[in-house]
Design goal:
homodimer; about 140 residues; alpha+beta; Dna Ligase, domain 1; 5 strands; DNA-binding
Chain lengths: ~140, ~140
DNA sequence: AAGAGAATGAGAATGATTCTTATTTTTATA
DNA sequence: TATAAAAATAAGAATCATTCTCATTCTCTT
């Protein structure tokens, strides 16, 4: 007899799914990833819950890449790289964001600072290789 | 007799306008600002030329604030602050972005890095005051 | 002055995101 | 356990920033 543990709440599934990936997906990406387990999940539900999580501070938005918002369940301060070729977003966990600047920023501006985002842009390895091939 | 120097090209006006402001305007903001001098300028022209300037590297996009893209004619590396209350974007010219990290980032990721964006978020002075008043 | 090519205006098209509403699921209460 | 109230969801419509289309207007060259 199978367990009667049914997972009715799709909300948890959305958060889990985001927490299990490192691709910094868009809402549509997540919707696609979730469909295996929840074939009837609605795109609106994904959007709705993502903004809820954002408000709750459970996740972060990385802003839009090519006009599409990307999300990250890792809310700890870390550095990102965005490839201008393919739109891939990578974590750069080796680097530490310059926390010293935060106090300095508050001091010189009078603004109360609650967040910091350091993002590099450029061309990722696989796009570099692809560009190379195209020249041949 | 008035000078016969007519400024037919609106393109230059758009770039000049962006260069003369520090508010990091949106396309619509610019369109509004330009209407004094060019009452018949089209919003499509503003958008069209902004993406041209971006491609040419004459201006930078700061990404979207509240779903609306914001632009900056200052392409030199500098730090931004975005107010989550009013959406205002401020320069923090006192701070220098950590250029040392860029080489480190290339080293550890293999990505070719072409740009860097350091952005703080929080509450600006005038929004802090307004919040204060609301409590009274 | 005429023709070719670039720039523009106006409005339609696009597409990501949000909203609405009817339905389903969950929780609270008896 | 039944039942009512509250929360969550699906589906599709609505919104709105941005891009596209195409007819017209400018600009430059000859």
């Amino acid at each position: 007899m199978e367990q009667t543990v049914k997972q009715f709440r799709k909300r948890n599934a959305i958060l889990s799914c985001l927490r299990c990936t490192h691709v910094h997906p868009s809402a549509e990406d997540l919707h696609r990833m979730l469909q295996a387990e929840h074939p009837d999940i609605s795109l609106a539900t994904v959007y709705r819950n993502l903004s809820l999580f954002k408000r709750q501070g459970l996740i972060r938005s990385l802003g839009a890449v090519d006009g599409i918002e990307r999300f990250d369940a890792d809310t700890s301060p870390h550095v990102h790289f965005i490839c201008t070729g393919c739109g891939r977003v990578l974590d750069l966990p080796q680097l530490t964001p310059p926390q010293s600047l935060e106090a300095e920023a508050e001091g010189c501006s009078g603004c109360r600072i609650t967040g910091c985002q350091l993002t590099f842009t450029g061309v990722c390895l696989s796009c570099q290789q692809q560009n190379q091939e195209e020249l041949t």
